[in-house]
Design goal:
This protein is of the alpha+beta class. The chain folds into three domains: 102 residues, 2-Layer Sandwich (Double Stranded RNA Binding Domain), CATH 3.30.160; 107 residues, DNA polymerase, domain 1; 174 residues, Intergrase catalytic core (hpI Integrase, Chain A, Orthogonal Bundle), CATH 1.10.443. It is built from 17 helices and seven strands. The strands form two sheets. Strands 1-2-3-4 form a four-stranded antiparallel sheet, covered by helices on one side. It has a three-stranded antiparallel sheet with strand order 5-6-7. Strand 1 and strand 2 form a beta hairpin.
Length: 420
């Protein structure tokens, strides 16, 4: 029979006398030495005495404690240990909370925007890419075309309509770029799925998917030509370009004067350049053909280099804003955009040089092609040709520099043939 009342409980707690006070039927009020009080249900199961805590007196009233004790007593009399039942319930609650937490974490992860996933993919894989420029090319391509459409979207929300919005404007205009762009989006979305950030089919997959919505790249355009300025317009263009003092504009001028590729110029280091001899030696590792290439530097190119400051801690001729890195691949293209010449590409100036050499000079074809570091000779020719036609190329590049600066008259055949 119950012996405690609410007032009795309060009195015992205020007295602070430690010990156990029986309420009856196995329910006890336990007062600790520190003055804290809690409810205990004492019972026997399989002949063994056990104590089961029912909660502190501040959270559990006397009436509630009696209810809990009655439920536990009923279980114990039926041969079921109430502690086991309680522990199982607590474990279920713990598992439910953990499942809820994991679901919240998964939802939060799936909210990760495409741009973050893409940049993480680049950072993770760039160590395994053979070409150091590859990571920058990845980022440049995605920044130029993809990020403005899906950069802030969670990968889970990206669908076919988003991918087509990105690809269609460039698919027929720049098919090679568009194909690389599609592949890069596909790889990023595959990585997102592997991380549990998205489910379902990859909307950028080509085979059996986008190949039903877009024409094959090989049928769009068989040859990709870089937009080039007509050679007759080059002197006027160079005169305008020389008025711009920014480093990226000087890099573009140097690219034009040497007829070299964008990457060859941007990654040029001072150690490769001999200002006294007027020679820039590009190592084989940075050449498309995998062969060392000596570039004869005209006086205009040397004057440009001599006027450049050399940045301490950065060995590049055209250093970028980031420490120990060159200018971005987009730097020279942005110069053209600021000049309102979106119709041109940096690589296109090599075509301008080749057109000028063919139409306005009598230099032999092999000299012009060697100046562009093109491999044109047959295996037999390669076996007999030991030199790199450097002296003849030096004269060609001097004439090219003079023409670009406006010192040579722009008319067909204006430059005489080189001495035999």
């Amino acid at each position: 029979m119950a012996s405690l009342t609410t007032k009795t409980v309060e009195k015992l707690i205020r007295a602070g006398l430690s010990g156990m006070t029986n309420d009856g039927d196995g329910l006890y009020l336990k007062v600790g030495r520190s003055g804290s009080a809690s409810w205990i249900f004492r019972y026997k199961i399989a002949g063994k005495s056990r104590d089961m805590g029912l909660g502190g007196h501040l959270e559990v009233s006397l009436a509630k404690a009696r209810e809990k004790a009655a439920e536990a007593r009923k279980l114990s009399k039926s041969g079921v240990d109430p502690l086991t039942i309680r522990d199982e319930m607590l474990e279920r609650q713990r598992l439910e909370k953990e499942a809820e937490r994991l679901a919240q974490d998964a939802a939060k992860a799936k909210a990760t925007p495409f741009k973050d996933v893409a940049l993480d993919y680049i950072a993770t894989h760039k160590a395994g890419w053979k070409n150091a420029k590859h990571a920058q090319q990845w980022e440049n391509t995605l920044t130029a075309y993809a990020f403005k459409v899906i950069g802030d979207l969670p990968t889970q929300e990206i669908g076919v309509e988003h991918v087509l919005t990105i690809l269609k404007p460039v698919w027929t205009v720049k098919p090679e770029t568009a194909s690389r762009l599609r592949n890069r989006i596909e790889l990023v979305l595959d990585a997102a799925k592997a991380k549990g950030l998205r489910d379902g089919e990859n909307p950028a997959r080509w085979r059996g998917h986008l190949d039903k919505l877009l024409p094959p790249r090989v049928k769009v355009r068989s040859v990709k030509h870089h937009s080039a300025i007509p050679w007759l317009e080059l002197p006027a263009f160079m005169a305008t370009l020389e008025k711009t003092e920014e480093l990226s504009a000087k890099a573009l001028r140097f690219t034009i004067l040497t007829a070299c590729r964008t990457g060859e110029v941007l990654e040029a280091t001072w150690a490769e350049i001999d200002l006294v001899a007027g020679i820039w030696t590009i190592p084989a590792s940075r050449m498309k053909a995998g062969k060392e290439h000596r570039v004869p530097l005209s006086q205009a190119a040397l004057d440009l280099l001599t006027a450049l400051p050399q940045v301490k801690g950065n060995s590049y001729v055209f250093p970028g804003a980031r420490k120990a890195r060159p200018l971005s691949n987009m730097a020279m293209l942005m110069v053209l955009r600021r000049m309102k010449r979106d119709d041109l590409t940096t690589h296109g100036f090599r075509s301008t040089f080749r057109d000028w050499a063919s139409e306005s000079t009598h230099y032999p074809r092999e000299v012009c092609e060697q100046a562009l570091a093109h491999s044109v000779e047959s295996a037999v020719e390669a076996a007999y040709r030991r030199g790199d036609l450097f002296r003849k190329r030096q004269m060609l590049m001097d004439h090219w520099s003079q023409y670009a600066s406006g010192a040579l008259e722009a008319q067909s055949g204006s430059v005489s043939t080189i001495p035999e």
